[in-house]
Amino acid sequence: MQNEGLGSWIHRRRIKSRGKVAIISAGVKLTYDEFDRNINSLAHALAGAGIAKGDRVAYLGENHPVFLEVFFATTSLGAIFVPLNTRLAAPELHYALEDSGSRVLVHADALTDLATRSAVGIENLRLLTADGPGSPESQSLASFRSTHAEFMDTEVGEDDPAIILYTSGTTGHPKGALLLHRNLTWNTFNALVDYDVTSSEMALLIGPMFHIAALGMGAFPVMLKGGTLILETAFDPGRVLELIEEYQITMLSGVPTTFQMLSEHPKFAATDLSSMRNVTCGGSAMPMRVLDAYEKKGVSFTGAYGMTETSPGATSLSPTFTREKAGSAGLPHFFADLRVVHEDFSDVAVGEIGEILIRGNNVIEEYWNRPEASRDAFVEGDWFRSGDMGYFDEDGFLFIADRLKDMIISGGENIYPAEVEQMIIELGHISAVALIGIPDEKWGEVPWAVVTVVPGASTSLDEVRAHLDGRIARYKMPKNLIIVDEFPRTGSGKIRKADLRKMFAPI
Q1: pLDDT of 170 above 60
Q2: By C-alpha distance, which of 109, 113, 97, 278 is closest to 205?
Q3: Residues with Cβ < 8 Å from 73, sequence gap 6 or more?
Q4: I need a surface site. Which of 34, 166, 260, 402 has the fewest CB within 10 A?
Q5: Phi and psi for 317 in degrees, rounded to 5?
Q6: Is the pLDDT assigned to residue 443 strictly greater than 80?
């Protein structure tokens, strides 16, 4: 077989797992054989529409079998998959489509209006409706598919690009992280080793696959081993608890908010969780009271730290160390290396805080069409600058101390302040703005806007949110607004956001 990339995985798996269920979605079961035929018929159709190696195919929609079919069909041709965040506003999606040069956009029927608005002005972009009858602007995928279902064995190597994933920009516009087949493959190996993924997994995916966490640490490892994915389009705590019992779920991932909401649901106490053996929490440390609630029911957690640029795994904390190393992000993944360094990139001492560097086959080599950002992201050759601050303890466990880039993580979503700040400052009577993350019991953090206004002027949270509405995702909008007379600043004039967080964070 010429295809050495992920696009060949399901075809290789179909015989080994013949008759086994690959995906369950809305109660409908899809075997590996059926999944392979769907992928191949779509690949033939894409090829017939002129999609070839290196072309980009985008997808806008929640978790659905077609999401994975488009990914595997695209990569089987050596083309590049571009998953889009459904929570973004049309201008944000437009930027990603235009920047990536996508030639096809497959979208959920429920998002037809958003897809159509996002595509305005982009030439040679073909729209396809994933799960509906189509429209004048968008052909139905059912009518687009080919009648041919044999595997198209295209020459694809491990160093060919597979995915462009857009990450929120630290300077306004998001960057497209270019993940190679090698990056995704070695991240999958790390997951198999450190999370002990098996062919008997019944993995419930409640996180959106347009984020790399659900895709890289959930879908890919499970499909490589021949397990079963249960796809949910949205997170509903009561339904999740029902599905755990109905399908004897073995594998579940989420952020602390996810597990807190599950533990607080009225059904939690009576739900049988005995099947759950592979439960992962990322994003931030799990509150002890939530950890206690699960451990009383026999469920232990694996911790995780990573980012889009590491496909996404960087470290894991096994259940063995959950309490002994409480608050730690864990040890480096089996096939990854980490360092913590000073500003001159020399290694810090044990217990000393510095910037976290990451190296491994799971780490990207570049950003899409961003040579300067790509150069700045690496030091000493192949060490990726995470932008996060942390330290190692005497046993080599990593602890995250702060975020060098001031990124806010709210409910598992990354928010880069610069993007929001640039829009808020468009309001002429606001003279300066700083977006900061404030601790929140439910979401981990929420964004607050701290502003100064020109003399004699005033503003309000409602005004700022109205200005942002429809232009950025709602989770990025400030939840509170504080007007101050002046900002704490460094000697060079930069706003001291750490000081602002201390001033306004709840005690």
Answers
A1: no
A2: 278
A3: 7, 39, 40, 42, 43, 46
A4: 402
A5: -120, 110
A6: yes
Closest CA relative to residue 277, chosen from 311, 249, 247 = 249
The single residue listed with the structure tokens 């995916």 is: 205
**What percent of the chain clears pLDDT 90, i.e. is strictly above it?**
87
Strands 408-410 and 413-415: antiparallel
Please state, in angstroms and rounded to a whole number, the distance separating the CA atoms of residues 160 and 141: 27
Cα(8)–Cα(252) distance, rounded to whole angstroms? 26
**Where is 293: in which H helix or E strand?**
helix 288-295
Band of pLDDT at residue 217, cut at 50, 70 and 90: very high
Tell me, rounded to whole angstroms, the distance of Cα 422 from its chain centroid: 24
Per DSSP, what are the bridge partners of residue 348? Answer: none
pLDDT in tens, 401-428: 877 778 898 998 888 888 899 899 999 8
> Would you state the structure tokens that stand for residue 393, as one six-digit string?
């303890």
Per-residue confidence (pLDDT) for residue 173, from 0 to 100: 81
Count helices and strands in the chain by DSSP H and E runs: 16, 27
Burial 188-206 (b: 16+ CB within 10 A, else e): bbbbbebbebbeebbbbbb
Domains and CATH numbers, the chain: 35-157 (3.40.50.980), 194-403 (3.40.50.12780), 408-504 (3.30.300.30)
Terminal-residue alpha carbon distance, the chain: 60
Tokens of 14: 């179909």
What average pLDDT does the segment 467-482 reach?
96
- Is there a contact between 176 and 165 (Cβ–Cβ < 8 Å)? yes
Do 163 and 311 touch, CB atoms closer than 8 A?
no
Would you tell me how many other CB atoms lie within 10 Å of the CB of residue 273? Answer: 17
CA separation for the pair 161, 203 (Å, rounded): 27
The reported pLDDT for the residue numbered 169 is 58
C-beta of residue 410 within 8 angstroms of C-beta of residue 444: yes
* Region 212-225 average pLDDT: 97
Nearest-Å Rg of the Cα atoms of the chain is 23
Distance CA 225, CA 206 (A): 20
Listed in order, strand segments (DSSP E) in 130-250 are: 139-140, 161-167, 175-180, 202-205, 228-231
